[in-house]
């Protein structure tokens, strides 16, 4: 898929060109900072199992990646994150109003790429996914600082925030490939489960790894008051009255200022075993994901998709 | 068109529904605050001259209006405007991160409406217009605080910021109506010129009217360092060395803090006659706009479009 991903890269580069001197360098830098292009890869893999309409697949894949980039830009602005992928985020470099507009501009470019597929279903998937992502991000914001919340609430949030775009990528690939409707549904279900696993691992890594690996400080979610699967599981392990529960509550509520206390809490989460438990939940999602691949007759494509699912689980950054 | 506009209104209301208690009331309030629904009206009028596919026209019209609303939300966030249409803006009520996401959410809903027309050209127009709007807003930001700029720079900016969505509305209406290509181009050209006139009048009103009429304080553009046609014309009337030029320069540069000095400058602009000159420039755009209507054979539709153009010019708020 290397050569095809390079075509996606080239398409992204062209789409993200903007004729404004100061902004253009920023946007190019941001878009090229890259990430792993997982969503384009997933889209191409889903298409590969059917009619491989390369030009449309590349166009849609570039659109999906730019949609992802745009939503990261707005999300960084919300989180006020100073580092993303080990580089300073856009919002730490320029005024936040420009950041909003640059995000909007990239949304526009991604919409143009979706439109350029000239496939109304691809466009409909694109639009509803943008809506799902916003829904997930709004829920993350309004669910924040409340330790007491159920697993369903968490799953709905990470579906919107992350899994919806994985689902969209696979569905677009299958739709462009003119896969039969049942296959489109299966690929979407596969990618949804992979996306859920991906986000759970993200939430685990946020607590397990330090700046060196992730390019951002550890425990960001806790510091921002975002409840994730590991912190939910940790709370469940603690008996009523355990002082660590009160501490977790204070940190999630945003009432704990001491870095030392937060670091100790992170250490307690790490040694509690909940990171392994959460990883097992992610692994279950990957098992379910793979079951959806039975419909695919092309063994080569199926194997690549299985590898994709495994990689979401075993990643360390 | 009243009944059809009510259908647009109903479609907007449904599309802007969000299943999040706190946000939902804010969004409903914002979307219903309304404005004049000029862009939906223009879209319906353009469609009226051809095949009146009401359901698709209503869907596209609702999409255009929500795109407009979303871009206002991000723009208010950028301007930090406290009042819009006489009501407190969203960003004066809640945290700016939520504002960004609510804007994104409405972008998503507008994209879904565009997709729901199942017309790939409508979707393509939608996406490229979003790009044009961002381009205009980014230029407004990066051109700010510089008094020395040419008319072309101003026109490019207001094309992106305002005229592009007028153009898109008319083009979508004509495309959905299956108008011949030459008619689509003419209607787009008509609406572009009307949109230019509309924005110039906006810039005149910003200086001419006070809070009572506009629902926001007078001279906002000057205070934000945005150079508009009236301020460009005012600068041109002043001989080199005139102290009012230095004052204008200071205000545009953001180096003047005295409200009294700014108010005096606004009074000087008002009495200089440049507001009339700018209004004449807008009137010229409307004349050019109407010339594009010659292709339309249906006299009733042509007349309604002419009235629309006149209204853009004669409005006082």
Summarize the structure.
The structure is a homodimer of 317-residue chains. With 317 residues, chain A is mainly alpha-helical. Chain A has helices at 2-15, 21-32, 38-48, 54-79, 90-93, 96-116, 120-143, 151-176, 181-208, 211-214, 220-224, 229-237, 243-253, 259-271, 274-291, 299-314, and strands at 83-84, 87-88.
Describe the model.
The structure is a homodimer of 317-residue chains. With 317 residues, chain A is mainly α. Chain A has a single domain (2-314), classed as Farnesyl Diphosphate Synthase (Orthogonal Bundle), CATH 1.10.600.10. Helix content of chain A is 76%, strand content 1%. Chain A has 16 helices and two strands. A two-stranded antiparallel ribbon of chain A has the order 1-2. In chain A, strand 1 and strand 2 (87-88) form a beta hairpin. In chain A, helix 15 (274-291) runs antiparallel to helix 16. Chain A binds chain B through residues 18, 20, 22-23, 71, 74, 77-78, 96-98, 100-105, 107-109, 111-112, 114-116, 118-120, 123-124, 126-128, 130-131, 133-135, 137-139, 141-142, and chain B through 18, 20, 22-23, 71, 74, 77-78, 96-98, 100-105, 107-109, 111-112, 114-116, 118-120, 123-124, 126-128, 130-131, 133-135, 137-139, 141-142.
